[in-house]
C-alpha cells in the first residue's frame, strides 16, 4: 500500500502550510523507498530507509538539506563550503549546485582515507570549481570561516547543518511517518543514523516529535567528541524549532531529551578511519542486499543498527545516507 498525496506538496508543507513561504528547490526524488532485510540472527527484520536513492545524479542524506540551502541560487553565482577531504557534503554541494548553474569553492582538510573516501575526493575535485586542502581540520575550518567572513560567496554550512538545512530532515521524518501510516513498514522503535555535524539526527528527532511518533533517534558518532554530542544535537533540534517559529509563526512540538541517544564506540579512533566493526557490517549488508556502504559514515551506523536490532525489542530502521551507485 502506498500513501497518495500531491507529489508537489512535501509532507512538511502539507502538515504546516505556513512553511510553504520558506524557499525550496526540488533536487531529490521522493519519497525514498523503505525495504526490509532479514538476517538469521535477528529476531525481526531490519528496515532500511533508502535515502541513497534520493537522486539519480547523486543521492544521500545531503540532498535533503541542499533543497533548502540552494533555494534561490542564481546561474553564475559562486558558493563556498567546507568539509573533510572525503566529504560527501562537499561532493553533493558541487553536484547539485551545478544543476542550478552555480559554481562551488570548497575548503577541505586531510583525515584518514579509504578507497571510497578517495573516490569521493576525486569526484569532488572534478565537480567543484575550486578546491583547496588544509593539512589539519582546525586549519581547514579556520580557512573556510575566514573566506566566509572576507569573501562575497554564498555560504553553505559544514555538513549542510543549520536550521534551514535541518528542515530537510524534519521533512524526511514526516515522509517516514506517511510510509508508516500507509503500512509500508511498521512503526519503528528507533532509527539509526551516522552522526557528524548532527543535522540529520536533529531534523529527524524534530520531525518525529511533529508526527507524534515514539521513534527514538540513535546516532552513531563518527567524528571526535569535541565535534558533536547528544546535548549539541538536542540544541540543534530545539534551535531549529525556535527558528521555524520566528520565521513562519509555526510552533513545532518540543524534542524531549530521551528522543536522542548517541553511541560512541562506532568512531574507531579517527574520522574516516576504517574499523573492524564497520568492515564486518558492510560485508553483512553487501552479502544480504548487494548495497555498498562507506567506511566513514554508513558502515559504522549500520554496525550500530545491527547491534541494537539484536539486543533491543521493537523495529529498527537503518537510514541509508550514502549513494554508492556511481562507484566503480
Please explain how this structure is put together.
This protein has 328 residues and is an alpha/beta fold. It folds into 2 domains: 11-57 and 162-319, Rossmann fold (3-Layer(aba) Sandwich); 71-155, Rossmann fold. Helix content is 40%, strand content 15%. The chain has 10 helices and 10 strands. It has helices at residues 11-15, 62-69, 88-99, 115-127, 137-150, 163-181, 199-211, 230-248, 276-289, 298-311; strands at residues 34-37, 46-49, 78-84, 103-109, 130-134, 154-155, 190-195, 216-221, 260-263, 316-319. It has a 6-stranded mixed β-sheet, sandwiched between helices. A 4-stranded parallel β-sheet has the order 5-4-3-6. The longest helix is centred in the middle third of the chain and has 19 residues, at 163-181. The model is unreliable at 1-5 (pLDDT under 50).
**Structural class computed from helices and strand pairing:** alpha/beta
What is the arithmetic mean of pLDDT? 96
> Helix-strand pattern, N to C?
HEEHEHEHEHEHEHEHEHHE
Task: Provide the domain count.
Answer: 2
- How many beta strands in the DSSP annotation? 10
Q: What is the top-level CATH class of the largest domain?
A: Alpha Beta
* CATH topology descriptor of the largest domain: Rossmann fold
Count of individual helical segments? 10
CATH architecture of the largest domain, by name, is 3-Layer(aba) Sandwich
How big a fraction of the residues is strand? 5-15%
What's the helical proportion of residues?
25-40%
End-to-end CA span: 35 Å
Q: What is the strand arrangement across the widest sheet?
A: 1-2-10-7-8-9
Rg: 18 Å
What is the global morphology? globular
Main beta-sheet annotation: 6 strands, mixed
List unreliable stretches of 5+ residues: 1-5
Amino acid at each position: 500500500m502506498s500513501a497518495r498525496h500531491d507529489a508537489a506538496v512535501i509532507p512538511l508543507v502539507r502538515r504546516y502550510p505556513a512553511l510553504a513561504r520558506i524557499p525550496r528547490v526540488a533536487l531529490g526524488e521522493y519519497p525514498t523507498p523503505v525495504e526490509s532485510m532479514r538476517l538469521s540472527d535477528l529476531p525481526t527484520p531490519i528496515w532500511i530507509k533508502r535515502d541513497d536513492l534520493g537522486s539519480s545524479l547523486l543521492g544521500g542524506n545531503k540532498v535533503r538539506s541542499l533543497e533548502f540551502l540552494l533555494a534561490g541560487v542564481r546561474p553564475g553565482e559562486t558558493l563556498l563550503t567546507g568539509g573533510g577531504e572525503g566529504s560527501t557534503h562537499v561532493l553533493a554541494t558541487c553536484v547539485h549546485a551545478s544543476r542550478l548553474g552555480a559554481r562551488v569553492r570548497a575548503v577541505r582538510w586531510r583525515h584518514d582515507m579509504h578507497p571510497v573516501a578517495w573516490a569521493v575526493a576525486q569526484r569532488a575535485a572534478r565537480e567543484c570549481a575550486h578546491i583547496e586542502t588544509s593539512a589539519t581540520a582546525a586549519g581547514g575550518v579556520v580557512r573556510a570561516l575566514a573566506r566566509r567572513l572576507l569573501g562575497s560567496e554564498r555560504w553553505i554550512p559544514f555538513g549542510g547543518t543549520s536550521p534551514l538545512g535541518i528542515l530537510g530532515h524534519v521533512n524526511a521524518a514526516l515522509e517516514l511517518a506517511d510510509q508508516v501510516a500507509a503500512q509500508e513498514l511498521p512503526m519503528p522503535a528507533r532509527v539509526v543514523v551516522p552522526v557528524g555535524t548532527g543535522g540529520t539526527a536533529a531534523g529527524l528527532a524534530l520531525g518525529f516529535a511533529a508526527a507524534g511518533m515514539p521513534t527514538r533517534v540513535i546516532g552513531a558518532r563518527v567524528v571526535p567528541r569535541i565535534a558533536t554530542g547528544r546535548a549539541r544535537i538536542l540544541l540543534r533540534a530545539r534551535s531549529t524549532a525556535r527558528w521555524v517559529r520566528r520565521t513562519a509563526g509555526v510552533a513545532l512540538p518540543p524534542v524531549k531529551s530521551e528522543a536522542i541517544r548517541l553511541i560512541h564506540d562506532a568512531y574507531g579512533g579517527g574520522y574516516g578511519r576504517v574499523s573492524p566493526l564497520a568492515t564486518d557490517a558492510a560485508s553483512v549488508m553487501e552479502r544480504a542486499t548487494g548495497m555498498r556502504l562507506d567506511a566513514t559514515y554508513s558502515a559504522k551506523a549500520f554496525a550500530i543498527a545491527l547491534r541494537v536490532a539484536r539486543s533491543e525489542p521493537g523495529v529498527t530502521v537503518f537510514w541509508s545516507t550514502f549513494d554508492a551507485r556511481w562507484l566503480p
